[in-house]
Amino acid sequence: MESVLDHHDALALLTWQVELGATEAICDAPVNRYEMATESSAAMAPDRPAAPPAVPPRPVAAPVTPPAAPGIDPVAVARQAAAAARDLGELREAMAAFEFCDLRLGARNLVFADGNPRARVMVIGEAPGRDEDIQGKPFVGRAGQLLDRMFAAIGMGRAMSDGARADGARAIYITNVLPWRPPQNRDPKPDEVAMLLPFVQRHVELASPDILVLMGNISCNALLGRKGITRLRGQWAEVLGRPALPMFHPAYLLRNPHAKREAWHDLLMLQARLRELA
């Protein structure tokens, strides 16, 4: 029969063990104190209702331009809206309100124009790039900086803001065929160019420059109906009753520096034509 220690015997035994050098009390069986702490915390924590199962968020659909109603021609709508614009400010508002081009959904800004609207020379580029989309102005990236240097070489620039037409021979006015940046800077699609072309044509009519400069294949194809800038450049044409000079796009010149010689030749042609028309 196992004997049971009373209080005095247990205290005496403990005192003897301390005198022998015992510093810790160890049980006969190991104790998992982590498990004890978890159980204790669970016992002390108040009862909480079980969390409802997570519900995945509903996907948010991207804004989509409503398709044109049957029988509505976006080109005809653009032509009517452009014709109703009485000045450049109204033309810009008409372009901003045009809802049939999906490019506007992915663009930050409408890129309308830059420079002096009274300039004798109007430069028409292709479409805005990343920098142009951010700033809302055409030709402000690396290609735009090269464009400024090109025209500065013949004493012209967008910063020339002389008020009178007679004094504005050194100024240039710049716009693009498309006012919104295409995704990943891809080439504009034919239907995009077609529906926005009436705005470009009206832009030329309102600005009424003496000479147009068509920068690159896209602008030549839109206004001349022809591609092949290497064949077209340096050859005078007529657009909307005005002389037009196709030229290499500055972005092309950045990729092909050897073509800068031809670009310089075209700039001298432009300068000579301006003197003839003065």
Uncertain stretches: 60-65, 163-167
Write down the secondary-structure element order: HHHHHEEHHEHEHHEEHH
Beta-strand percentage range: 5-15%
Shape field: elongated
- Helix count equals 12
> Terminal Cα separation, in Å?
131 Å
Mean residue pLDDT: 85
**Number of E-state strands:** 6
Structural notes for this entry:
The protein has 278 residues and is an alpha/beta fold. The chain has helices at residues 7-19, 33-44, 74-84, 88-96, 103-106, 130-135, 142-152, 190-207, 217-224, 229-232, 250-255, 260-277, and strands spanning 114-115, 121-125, 172-176, 211-215, 237-239, 242-247. The chain has a six-stranded mixed beta sheet with strand order 1-3-2-4-6-5, with helices on both faces. Mean pLDDT is 85; it is low at 60-65 and 163-167.
Describe, in short, the structure shown.
It is built from twelve helices and six strands. By secondary structure, it is α/β, with parallel strands linked by helices. Helix 3 runs antiparallel to helix 4 and helix 3 packs parallel to helix 8.
